[in-house]
Amino acid sequence: MNLLEMKNIGKAFDGLEVIKDISLSVEEGEVLGVIGPSGSGKSTLLRCATLLEKVDTGTILYKGETLVHTDEAGTAVYAPPADIKRIRSYFGLVFQNFNLFPHFSVLRNITEAPIHVAGQTKEQAVENARRLLRQMGLEDKEDAYPYQLSGGQQQRVSIARALALKPDILFFDEPTSALDPELTGEILKVIRELASERMTMVIITHEMGFARDVADHILFMDDGVIVEQGNAQELINNPQQERTKLFLNRFFNQ
């Protein structure tokens, strides 16, 4: 079953096309890696998928439900608000800069949305948050505030916060880009564990070895288009397109 389908997506800013007729799908249990140089459109594509930006053209479906489609006039038409609210619950998003509430404790950062958005009882939300903190190795940090945590700890809290709403699919927008190499390892370990549990994920990353080892499928983007896609191991180890080879040569001696 495809949890996500994006068909013929187009997006421009001030007349500059940054996404050009992109189509992709993500099956339940699949990990999709999205790689490419800065400015290639990766983050914009993710923002379109997660309603942080609106597409100009194209279709997006979650679990077969239409979030947006293009009408006969070529205009993107979004689903009614009630449908959008339901569809929004299907996905979670982990930002590169954590986006935690600085005036909330770790526990409240994780329980706020389950209580006030998903309608969980405080007891349910707290129990689930503590389970997630144990999973993240942060069970002793529930009363801490973000400023008291390392960057790696803050990012693990943000992952727990996204998981607390029990999404069907989890998006990561370069989750290690704000971290030094030592802390990067903490986050990659967590994501590897989620992949082993068959969590459906879309991961934008500059960590090529990680993408090769964790993703099932990889898209290489440049200049707003998908240049090459395929099995993660095969694409990273044996790219077919010259542009992909040039990009990966920055990371590997090929």
Automatic annotation (TrEMBL):
Quote the CDD domains the UniProt record gives. ABC_HisP_GlnQ
Tell me the ranges covered by the ABC transporter domain, including all copies: 4-248
Lipid bilayer topology: Peripheral membrane protein
Name a Pfam family for this protein: ABC_tran
Compartments (UniProt record): Cell membrane
- InterPro entries registered for this protein in UniProt: AAA+_ATPase, ABC_ATPase_HisP-typ, ABC_transporter-like_ATP-bd, ABC_transporter-like_CS, MetN_ABC_transporter-like, P-loop_NTPase
Listed SUPFAM superfamilies: P-loop containing nucleoside triphosphate hydrolases
Citing just one GO molecular function, the answer is: ABC-type amino acid transporter activity
The family classification in the record reads: Belongs to the ABC transporter superfamily.
Looking up SMART domains in the UniProt record yields: AAA (SM00382)
What's a GO cellular component annotated to this UniProt protein?
Answer: plasma membrane
Protein name from the UniProt record: Amino acid ABC transporter ATP-binding protein, PAAT family
